[in-house]
Amino acid sequence: MRQHGKLEYGGRAVPQRTCVGCRAREAKSELLRLVRVEGQVVPDLRGRLPGRGASLHPALSCLELAERRRAFPRAFRVPGPLDSSPVRAHLEGDQEMSCRTPS
Ligand SMILES: [Zn+2]
């Protein structure tokens, strides 16, 4: 057994995106794709919504960072503020539903 997954990946770059919250580079598959619909930022759960997307770690801390630095209007290239509550609702619901880790 000489196969190392790491080496196999070495030649082919995994697509990466930058989280609009913490600005860290991450494999695209680890990030939540967000799109703008009207004045709202919504999670693109199936990755099929058209238009410019932004990437975010599926974490409330990163959402809050993005909100604080007004990253969404910048990412979507719109002048006004955007309502990111659909993303928050998604992240909060997610955490409630997956109560695998006892706190
Ligand atoms: Zn992040």
Biggest sheet character: 3 strands, antiparallel
Strand content: 15-25%
Cα gyration radius (Å): 16 Å
> Which small molecules are bound?
zinc ion
Distinct helical segment count: 4
Which ranges are low-confidence, i.e. pLDDT below 50, for 5 or more consecutive residues?
Answer: none
Distance between the termini: 40 Å
Number of strands: 5
**pLDDT averaged residue by residue:** 86
Structural class: alpha+beta
Main β-sheet, spatial strand arrangement: 4-3-5
**What does the overall shape look like?**
globular
The percent range for helix content is 25-40%
What string gives the helices and strands in order?
A: HEEEEEHHH
Write the SSE topology.
Elements: H1 5-11, E1 16-18, E2 25-27, E3 32-37, E4 40-43, E5 53-56, H2 60-68, H3 71-76, H4 85-97
This protein binds zinc ion (ZN).
Could you characterize what this model shows?
- 34% of the residues lie in helices and 19% in strands.
- It is an alpha+beta fold and 103 residues long.
- The strands form two sheets. The chain has a three-stranded antiparallel β-sheet. A two-stranded antiparallel sheet has the order 1-2.
- Strand 3 (32-37) and strand 4 (40-43) form a beta hairpin.
- The radius of gyration is 16 Å and the shape is globular.
- The protein binds zinc ion.
- Zinc ion binds next to loops.
- Zinc ion binds at residues 19, 21-22, 24, 57, 62.
